[in-house]
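go over both lines:
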Amino acid sequence: MIAGLPEDVAHHVAKAEARLPVLSILPVFVPPASRPVALAWIALLGELREALFERSDPRVTGLKCAWWAEELQGMGRGAARHPLGRLLASTRVPWAEAADPLLALAVDDTPPADTAAASTALRPLATPLAAIDATLLGRPSIDPALVETLVRHWQSQRLWVGRADADGARIPMTFWARHGRRRTDAAEATEVHRDWATHLRGDRPGPMSPASLLRRVLDHSDHVVLSALAVGAEPRFPRWRGPFDAWRCARDAALHYRLPPPLRT
């Protein structure tokens, strides 16, 4: 367990590490006072991603996202219930701004017509989350490239966990048409999956220098996932590479995730 991290928060950080193994070594490169907030924030993003994109039953997705929307509202007024919410809660952070976009995305079942539509559907949630990230880091404005990084990250995760289900992966209709496939062929349409993964891998959002540690971590994960899916392989995160990947992410983000002390008022 990471020193200073409550046990109930550590449980959710461990879940995030299962999806982003680079997190297991990353705290070494984060100032001790910033580690709980940095890890809890990334873990919270993982919980939202799970609620939105890793549920096969739309009813469960709706219930989970409704709960998290209520939690985000509570985090902005000091009434958080979730361990991550209690650690991160602050009335100075615009948590509530992400609640309505989260609910809207949870019920959106419209297949995207093209790549622009696929990204447009995700930006209303990515934008307030980038604003939250900016507030946590004490920045005066959001990083537009982080918005696009979140969009691509969610698209890559959707493809990874939902590629056997056209509605889960949300591959644009233009890609199905390009290969003469129907969306009902999702389980067998590996060439469509590879094509979409190749497109996403090449769609790197903005320059990576300078970039926050969050952007570096998400970009690293997406590169591994999309590189594998582009050749029809299953993504793998070898444990032996963890220290090297973490060092590179932290080095390229100036070795510090420059978080101010947790905001409580």
Remarks:
- The chain has one domain: 27-252.
- Residues 255-262 have pLDDT under 50 and may be disordered.
- The longest helix spans residues 35-53.
